[in-house]
Amino acid sequence: MQKRKLGNSDLVVSEIALGSWLTYGGGVTRGSAEACVQRAFDVGINFIDTANVYSGGKAESFLGEVLRDVPRDRYVLATKLYFPMSPTDRGLSAAQVEKQLDLSLKRLRVDYVDLYQCHRYDTNTPLEETMAALDRAVKAGKTRWLGFSEWNAQQIAASLKLPYTRFVSSQPQYSLLWRGPEADVFPLCAQEGIGQIVWSPLAQGILTGKYKPGAAPPADSRAASDAMGGFLQGRLDEKVLVGVERLRPIAQELGLSVAQLALAWVLRKPEVTSAIIGASRPEQVEENAKASGVKLSAEVVAKVEGAFR
């Protein structure tokens, strides 16, 4: 497993990160979830990403239990806040930053997280209030570094003008099927020492090749799951699935799976520090981890991107 330095922080994280959205504490059984975390450590993954809202706090609680006997310096732990945790608890106000971070630390059973992230931008709270509260959290030792998810370039630039602890990470959606951040978020962040931790690099499993054109989703897939399939509604487009099938011979020629090829394509970007995977079985963790260190030639990159044109 290759590792990369996260922005201007001192965090060195695995190129593949283990995420917990929709899975742990939610749509995946406890035994399978524990096996996935263990396999992640076995293959050299040291970066674990979660959020307070995942499974209503249950993802954090699960991680707190499964990691309690793991030496704290063996893993890098990231969580987030913004989305509603109750009818009155949401957003990035100073009160919410303090309250939600304390609750996350309690569920995670740790004294600090390595990275605390704004899950979205809060248009209802002054940016200075949010940044000042996050700055206090850093100075109090409750988080080592700060990040954000899905902020646009204007919002990022505005945060950097304020006299508080600077962000070191950005967490955008990024994959072969979603390349929006390349236009302005990636260049700005590269200039400002902010690394990219990308989510959904396999487009909720679409880029694994498990979904075939004209066929029903496999019974054991995310799309077939009542608990996890909602975000795939309408995304299994026939044209997209045909494009994924065009990746198969390219991957086979390189000795890779379709998923490994799609992850290697994401990791080809120097701006990308780590790609977050979701896994319901330990074999998926192991397969995806093998994308780390794969180098794609310019010719292969052109073929991969041409599959969807």
Give a topology summary.
Elements: E1 3-5, E2 12-14, E3 16-18, H1 23-27, H2 30-42, E4 47-49, H3 58-66, E5 76-81, H4 94-108, E6 113-118, H5 127-139, E7 143-148, H6 153-160, E8 169-170, H7 185-192, E9 195-198, H8 238-254, H9 258-267, E10 272-277, H10 282-289, H11 298-306
Parallel strand pairs: 3-10, 4-5, 5-6, 6-7, 7-8, 8-9, 9-10
Antiparallel strand pairs: 1-2
Helix pairs in contact: 2-10, 3-4, 4-5
The largest beta-sheet arranges its strands as: 3-10-9-8-7-6-5-4
CATH class division: Alpha Beta
Looking at the overall shape, the CATH architecture is Alpha-Beta Barrel
Uncertain regions: pLDDT < 50 for 5+ in a row?
none
In percent, how much strand structure appears in the residues?
5-15%
Q: What is the total domain count? A: 1
Number of strands: 10
Largest sheet: 8 strands, parallel
**CATH fold group:** TIM Barrel
Helical proportion?
25-40%
Our measurement of the CA-to-CA distance between the termini, rounded to an integer number of angstroms, reads 32 Å
The gyration radius over C-alpha positions equals 19 Å
Discrete helix count: 11
